[in-house]
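Re: weekly structure request thread

Next one in the queue (253 aa):
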Amino acid sequence: MARKESESTKNKTVKDYSTPEGAINKKTFITAKKLETVVAILLGIATLLSAWATWIGTLHGGIQSINFTKSNNMAAEGSAEYNLGLQLYLSDYMAWNVIRDYNYELETAKAEGDKAKVELIKKKIEDFKKQNISETLAEGIKWMEKNNEDNPFNMPGMSENYFESAQEKVDLSHELLEEGKRDNTKGDSYHLVTVIFSLVLFLLGIVGTFKNMPNRIAVLSIAVVALVFAVIYMLTIPLPTGFGNMNFFEFNK
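Done, posted below.
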């Protein structure tokens, strides 16, 4: 009789713990409602950041186009300045040949002792210099007379002086071109950030399609990691030159 009562008590105990009423209910920290709230907040943040990255990338693209246009214009001006410098160089060289012939006549007149002719040739040389030579050649002649040289074009850097302005414009053109390339790279980087934010928005959008909570949490975790990575990467990309001025918000007048 005691044995039957013991087995009955044991079966009752097992039955009590095997039934749902006897199980211990644990509270879940992440509920479906909380998850939906988190997803909604992250969707808003990702949307705003995506719009920001798109705008900044567009600004970089605009500055890139401006720099490329300025570079092309500056290169054209440099080419024109080079042609002018070359023409001036040839003109001065021919003018120097004329002056040299006048100097031969002057030395001949001095040797003959004809003072009137000497003064006449000197005046002719001075008038010719005023009307036909550039400042570059004038400086070369002064250097020649000071250093007892026979040709002003032997002055160091003489030829480069004719193309100095052209070289400055060409150098500036190269600088603008390189700046445009850097803006292009920055703009491409912001476009990549935009793509990552689009991926984040996609992942957040499909979270609700999963029935199981672990699957939802896994997709949400991937979206959060991608969002954090995109934000950190975006912060490492420089903003456009002059950004922060109110001219970005001016309306056309």
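Helices lie at 2-18, 32-112, 115-132, 135-146, 158-161, 164-206, 213-235. The two ends are 105 Å apart (CA to CA).
Next request, please.
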